[in-house]
Amino acid sequence: MNVNRLIPIALGIVVVAAAIGAFVIWRSLGRGYWVPPANSTFLIKLGSPLDTSSPTDLGDGEFNYLGGPAKPPTVYDIDGNNNPSTTVDQLHNRGAHVLCYVPVGEWTPYMYDANDPRWAPLKGQVFNGTDRWLNTNPAGPYYSTLLDLEEQQFENCKSKGFDAIQPDGTDEAEGHGVSFNGSPLTVAEVNAYLIKLTEIAHSVGLSIGQLDYLDQTAALEPYFDFAIVESCFPAGVCGMTAPYAAAHKAIFEIEYTASPLAVCPAALAAGRVAGRYDPSLNGKLRIPCT
Fold first, then answer.
1. Which of 18, 43, 86, 261 has the greatest number of beta carbons closer than 10 A?
2. Which range, of 85-94, 109-118, 144-153, 168-177, averages the lowest pLDDT?
3. Is the separation of the CB atoms in 57 and 283 below 8 Å?
4. 208: left (phi over 0), alpha (psi -120 to 50) or beta
5. What's the total number of domains in the chain?
6. How far apart are CA 231 and CA 240, in angstroms?
7. Do residues 9 and 74 both lie within one domain?
């Protein structure tokens, strides 16, 4: 047997094996976009732009629910429109990643490109004074326009350096938003739209989370990269996030009224990243479990 002839063959096998391994790792890491680890630490501030000179806004020097030093946030959830790219850059410089809050179920004058005239035929009834439900029905006559506008919002997040999308409003639109025939949106219609949003987010290089809407977790978890849940503890529905825990995906639990002493033991045992916040999410109250 000629050993010298076998050397190139062996090297070829090593190269191919390495390439296959790299491909598998690439796929497992989310096809090139960042996905929050299940053991992340979390801070959300949506009421106003995050002030990177404020220790409170950054979550520095805080205490966990047991009174010990809290771990610094590794994931920040902030508004994608009222925070500049410099804020995202500064959070990245801290070693953190940043979620981009984007309204996807409603139109609001505070959203990115709110004055684009293409929103007009998509607007439904008014709520909260100025906000309008959007016609997110896949059978609607302007559905393709809606998807283009949402992609525009996601690309704005990407251009600012955000790592992921935190969509808001679709869970509330079920039963409220208008649809093509004037009927309330159905679960199937909402889910189809949400799944399409995951495709758009991934296509622009961002991960995306499911917000609330827990009765559809089993159907939606395969498409979303993480979950964000609000006030699940007093409602007794935190266990409905189990598909995300089983898939080793991050679950960010935001509580507004429940005591951290009651919330945290259960959340930690179930692998949820929980904390107590002011209902206005103004950054003035955060008691994380870790």
1. 43
2. 168-177
3. yes
4. beta
5. 2
6. 13
7. no
CA end-to-end span of the chain? 62
We report the CATH number of the domain holding residue 268 as 3.20.20.70
Do 88 and 154 lie in one domain? The reply is: yes
Could you give the CA distance from residue 228 to residue 211 in angstroms, rounded to a whole number? 5
**Same domain as 74, residue 128:** yes
13 and 55 fall within a common domain: no
Neighbours of 51 (CB within 10 A): 13
3 state DSSP class of 168: strand
Q: Which helix (H) or strand (E) holds 270?
A: helix 260-270
- pLDDT tens by residue, 114-142: 999 999 999 988 888 899 989 898 988 99
Alpha helices in 110-222 (DSSP H): 143-160, 170-173, 187-203, 217-220
Sheet holding 106-107, edge to edge: 106-107, 131-134, 123-127
Query: Taking the alpha carbons of 178, 183, 186, 189 in that order, is the dihedral positive or negative?
Result: negative
The residue segments making up the domain with residue 5 are 1-30
Torsion sign (Cα): 230, 36, 59, 63: positive
